[in-house]
């Protein structure tokens, strides 16, 4: 015998849909965190390059020109160039720090999505367990009813045979 429709099937369907949605959200959060980590690596490389440029420039700031002369206007021009490179390195550093914050937010979002998936899975398992218990109860009740019907049929046969046998002896 086929069991009747589970009364809470709509809840099961809803919880399954929520779990699937949580899986998709987790996948999107994983991708977003990976993208932000890649951006951070790029910005760290840019910062390292800017620092390297600044350090190289600073090492050669007081080198004489082709004629072996180092004039004040050349030093001032090179100092201005060094300031520019230092500012570029500072901006690259700020960009790295900001990207670290963005990555941190993405990782927190990822953890929230992970927790949401765990919660959705837990809620689905709860309703699935209820469904299993309901089905087991239904099967027990059906078996009990079938047993009762079988007993009633047996008693009815016995009574009929008994009443039929008593009439024949009179």
Task: Tell me what the structure shows.
- It is built from two helices and no strands.
- The relative contact order is 0.13.
- The chain has a single domain, classed as Helix Hairpins.
- The chain has 170 residues and is mostly helical.
- It is rod-shaped and about 140 Å long.
- The two termini are 45 Å apart.
- The longest helix is centred in the C-terminal third of the chain and has 98 residues.
- α1 runs antiparallel to α2.
- 88% of the residues lie in helices and 0% in strands.
| Assembly of the depicted chains | single chain
Q: Architecture, CATH level 2?
A: Orthogonal Bundle
What's the number of structural domains? Answer: 1
Largest sheet: none
Question: Residue ranges: pLDDT <50 for 5 or more in a row?
Answer: none
What is the CA-CA span between the terminal residues?
45 Å
What best-fitting shape do the alpha-carbon axes yield? rod-shaped
Number of strands: 0
What is the ordering of alpha helices and beta strands? HH
- Overall mean pLDDT: 92
Number of helices: 2
Q: What is the CATH class name?
A: Mainly Alpha
Give Rg in angstroms: 40 Å
Predict the CATH topology. Helix Hairpins
Can you give the helix content as a percent range?
Answer: over 70%
Task: Determine the structural class based on helices, strands and strand pairing.
Answer: mainly alpha
Task: Classify the beta-strand content into a percent band.
Answer: under 5%
How would you summarize the topology of this molecule?
Blueprint: H1 9-59, H2 72-169
Helix pairs in contact: 1-2
């Amino acid at each position: 015998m086929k069991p009747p429709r589970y009364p809470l099937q709509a809840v099961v369907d809803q919880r399954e849909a929520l779990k699937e949605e949580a899986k998709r959200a987790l996948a999107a959060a994983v991708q977003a965190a990976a993208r932000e980590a890649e951006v951070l690596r790029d910005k760290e490389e840019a910062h390292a390059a800017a620092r390297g440029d600044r350090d190289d420039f600073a090492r050669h700031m007081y080198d004489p020109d082709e004629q072996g002369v180092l004039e004040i206007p050349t030093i001032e021009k090179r100092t201005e160039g060094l300031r520019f490179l230092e500012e570029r390195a500072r901006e690259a550093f700020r960009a790295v720090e900001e990207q670290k914050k963005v990555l941190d937010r993405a990782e927190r979002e990822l953890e929230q999505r992970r927790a949401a998936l765990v919660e959705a899975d837990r809620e689905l398992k709860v309703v699935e367990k209820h469904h299993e218990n309901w089905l087991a109860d239904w099967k027990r009740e059906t078996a009990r009813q079938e047993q009762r019907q079988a007993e009633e049929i047996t008693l009815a046969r016995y009574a009929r045979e008994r009443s039929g046998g008593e009439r024949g002896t009179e």
